[in-house]
Amino acid sequence: MTTAAAYALSASDGAFEKVTIERRDLGPRDVLIDIKYAGICHSDIHTARNEWGGTKYPVVPGHEIAGLVAAVGSEVSKYQVGDRVGVGCMVNSCGKCGPCLANEEQFCNRGATMTYNTQVDPAVQADGYTMGGYSTQIVVTEHFVVGIPEGIGLDQAAPLLCAGVTLFSPLRHWNAGPGKKVAIIGMGGLGHVGVKIAAALGAEVTVLSHSLSKQEDGKLFGASHYYATSDRQTFRELRGKFDLILNTVSADLPIDDYLKLLNLDGTLVILGLPENPMAIKPFTIAGYRRSLAGSMIGGIAQTQEMLNFCAQHGIGAEIEVISADEIDGAYDRVVASDVRYRFVIDVSTM
Ligand code: NAP
Ligand code: ZN
Ligand code: ZN
């Protein structure tokens, strides 16, 4: 076992504390990573505060991990000591089922092993639950490690491991590109990366934000249009306009109002994951043959493709780097939508 420093929460209303955790011995296919940066995703907050239920405490969140390879097992062929690497939301899956064989490990029929808060054999993680990236080191089987291309700083790359692929995957699946009108609801951690990627894919991008306060940034990230959803006129003006709408909002939304903004055969994809059900009117979705869909991160091969795409197009996340003792305050600011646009923990401060 290797010991690592980590920041853990021991109750939903607690504060983060520095702890020591154990990482398993290197197996033949394992990679030991010295974590340099860990992004703070809103899913970390939903989990840490037990908003989805089922959180096992103490929890060490973090699934936007960027660092350097510190050691490799005897059969590892993809990586060498010193390589720049990342780990996203998953650290294992069965490898044999249909979705795994189709490179969609996130939909593994046996349930993918998520980077934190997933029950595992105590031989894998001493406490019986995976522990995430708010930590100095992690051991991950090589298939679930991706390479971070030169040209993206590790700090700006970290958020791409979840936010980047969560937007890249549906943009690819629903063929965002030239001639397509794409709207992104919410310009936070996920949304701002989505604007950059959708614009780089050649789509005409519109941001639907709850205010106009980030309008200038939206244009810099590549959006052609920017509307405030607090203004009812937005919904009248944009009715029937979009081929694809990606909803990244972490809170409850009147989703039926947004469905009406889809054109014929348009699709609204749910990415944001608040805990409450949503109401839709059958007439809204029947009209214009609209679709309501969802998407969950992306597979490992697609995560690598996304990183290569971002490096090629000069895309990184816009970040605010914090020290490990600032996580609690950062969580409050994310919930208040007061972040430009992702907090990233500098792990050297642990
Ligand atoms: P975030 O940085 O907090 O961004 C969410 C954005 O939603 C905010 O910036 C804000 O954008 C908007 N928003 C927040 N509260 C709102 C409210 N009350 N009314 C209207 N708009 C509001 O969060 P994130 O890290 O991007 O994550 C967003 C959601 O996606 C979370 O629920 C997270 O769990 C989920 N997620 C899902 C996946 C997946 O695979 N499906 C992956 C990662 C995360 P504006 O200020 O522009 O309005
Ligand atoms: Zn995430
Ligand atoms: Zn599987």
Automatic annotation (TrEMBL):
Annotated CDD domains: CAD1
Keyword Metal-binding: yes
The keyword Metal-binding is assigned to this record: yes
Assigned EC number: 1.1.1.2
Transmembrane segments: none
Keywords, in A-Z order: Metal-binding, Oxidoreductase, Zinc
Gene3D superfamilies attached to this UniProt entry: Medium-chain alcohol dehydrogenases, catalytic domain (3.90.180.10), NAD(P)-binding Rossmann-like Domain (3.40.50.720)
Source superkingdom: Bacteria
Cofactor(s) the protein requires to work: Zn(2+)
Domain Enoyl reductase (ER) per the UniProt entry, residue ranges: 14-345
Pfam families the record matches: ADH_N, ADH_zinc_N
Reactions that this protein is recorded to catalyse: a primary alcohol + NADP(+) = an aldehyde + NADPH + H(+)
GO molecular function: alcohol dehydrogenase (NADP+) activity; zinc ion binding
Entry's family note: Belongs to the zinc-containing alcohol dehydrogenase family.
PANTHER family: ALDEHYDE REDUCTASE (PTHR42683)
The protein, known as: alcohol dehydrogenase (NADP(+))
Organism of this sequence: Nocardia colli
Lineage: Bacteria, Bacillati, Actinomycetota, Actinomycetes, Mycobacteriales
